Amino acid sequence: MLIGVYRKNDPLQTLPERRISELVAEGWRQGVDVFFFDASCIDMEQESIKGKFQVGDSWMEKRISLPDVILNEAPDPVKSRPESEKWLRRRVPFTTFLIHGKYEIHKKLEPLFQDHMVPTERLLDLNGLLAFLDVHNEIIAKPDQGCRDNSIFTVKKKEQNYLWRQHAEEIQLDYTDLEKRVQDVLAQGSYIIQPYFPSITEMQEVVNFRVHIQRNGTGRWVVTKVYPIIGAPNSIISNLSQGGCTEDAKNVLQQLLSDDADQIIREMERLSIRMAEIMNRSYSFLIDELGMDYIVTPEGQLLFLEASISPQTRFHERERAAKAIEYAQYVAKAGRMVSSPVVAMLTADSADEPLAAACAYAAKWNDAEFYYFGPTDVHAELRFIKGCVYQDGEWEARYCPFPNVVYDRLKERGNASYDNVYAALTHVPFTDERSGESLSKKKIYEFVQKDPELSTHLIPCQAVKHTDEVPAFIDTHGTSIIKPSRGSLGEGILIVQREENGYAVKDHQHIHKMSEKEFAEWITMIANKNSHIVQKFIRSETRSGLPFHIRLHLVRNGEGEWSLISAFPFLSTQRDHKVVNHPDSLRAVTTWDWLSRHEFSDKQQVMFAMLKRFALKMADHIAGSVTDRICELGIDVGIDPSSQIWLFEVNMNRNGSTHREFDVAQNIIPFALSLQ
Fold first, then answer.
1. Which tens digit of pLDDT belongs to each residue from 395-427?
2. Which residues are CB-contacts of 277 (< 8 A; sequence separation ≥ 6)?
3. Cα distance between residue 133 and residue 527, in whole Å
4. Burial (CB count within 10 angstroms: exposed 0-12, middle 13-18, buried 19+), residue 550
5. Cβ atoms of residues 240 and 314 within 8 Å
6. pLDDT score recorded for residue 312
7. What is the largest CA-CA distance in the chain?
8. Could you count the other beta carbons within 10 Å of the beta carbon of residue 476?
């Protein structure tokens, strides 16, 4: 295998000598060839590179074909990359990528790690700094991007003035001087501010603890080294490049605390890997290494400061090189197919994770592999996908081969925003192949009308096209509803009743009284949109008057047939909120067993048999009516006081699976595998 070590400018001149020698030595130990090159060495016309190889104690230049993988040390921002590098990135996988600044990283981590996060805000102006200073006794400001440690400063209030510290310098500033300094700082770039409460050694030196983590040859995070960074005397920060030093982490922790140093180190390691996985979820690539920095409070609490790529490794270059070369080989092999069939779930919704976990187990039972991925995670030119695999009860990011089948939970085929992902996987069968847009209620009703048995479950309805037709419909069918023809998730549905002097039109919260003239004008406005239907109102209520509907959830199984996963009742908790699935309805979810025991106690089995027969026949009929494959349906029905089943809605898009993930997975995974 051929691994290229790349920097825009000659890496033999810009990388530390120890790093170069350890990468070469580690390549030899792992049986791979390592060479070095810069942007000027890339020949786009000949599709080759002039690489520098170490031979004995000297360097030899040789023209070679493109390598298997590129270990790119300290990448440059996109706008600073030469065209030759951009060209090369489309042909060879790179190992290292830039991530967001400190502020964005904190915001990604805050929801899940609140107990370990230091309050962090953007520094926008002097007013923001002073407001933050009102809350915290002393604050530290640092560049949002990069590691420009010479630009870090602290501020605290001192009587009517302010104490500004930078490096070993300490000066007093009045309001005007402070304002000028803050303006000068912000002119250099974006900054963040945090409370300043450093850990201090016995020698009054500032100390942080760094956990250096890397991905290894399997793509998993491992800890390379945990070490303290001890600042120079009188410095406000701990930094090795600013005169700092390092010692044994356990010894320093034992000096700072009476708590178990080994336990704190293990917690730092565990926390770092968990945080790294959360950080990686929002990127389409794998982060290959991070330096995770913490302070330890006198009580032993770990507080996260920041994460950085390409951390300082001058005292453990050999350990770093071992993981870097392992990981480079992993990246080079990432697009290769595995022996087992692979099913991958395409989703953009984190709520699908429990279903994905169930699918991972179901895949194992069927001798297959499973991962899930997002719409921006496909690297078509390099033939791999950044997916999430289930390991030891946790989701971990990996580079995965293209799957044999895609379980499509995104269901956005035909949406221009997602054309790239569907085009990249055009040769892979999908469980759903129809356009992602919802079919109109009118179209669904037309399908159902063609089947004599199913048509008896259709609620009388018609399109709102002519003003005089709606009053006539209401006179024939009584209380009716007017709703959008395309899915509205319960919104926009109105209940209409004729009254002595006109009509009562009820939305979710209010009742609007209209004269016949006002009602006619309103209907004319709706008719002009050609987007609504009028439908007879079906009273689907419990004996105590609570409105309900039942979601019949169906998926395909390994034989390609439909399986009824569940009949899930949804009840409105308020009698006057008739539209159960309106987002403002307070609704309860229960089981069919509970509902039928209370509402149909004398015919539970008969009613369920009726629902099941209806659901399976409806699924077969709908699937036969659409031209493209579908694998999942949500059918909403009501049951009137005479036990008649009425069709409310049919949903072909994203159906929820809460509480029945394993039922869905044990059907959908065999179905997906049948499509190979």
1. 999 999 999 999 999 999 999 999 999 999 999
2. 221, 394, 395, 396, 397
3. 60
4. buried
5. yes
6. 84
7. 103
8. 10
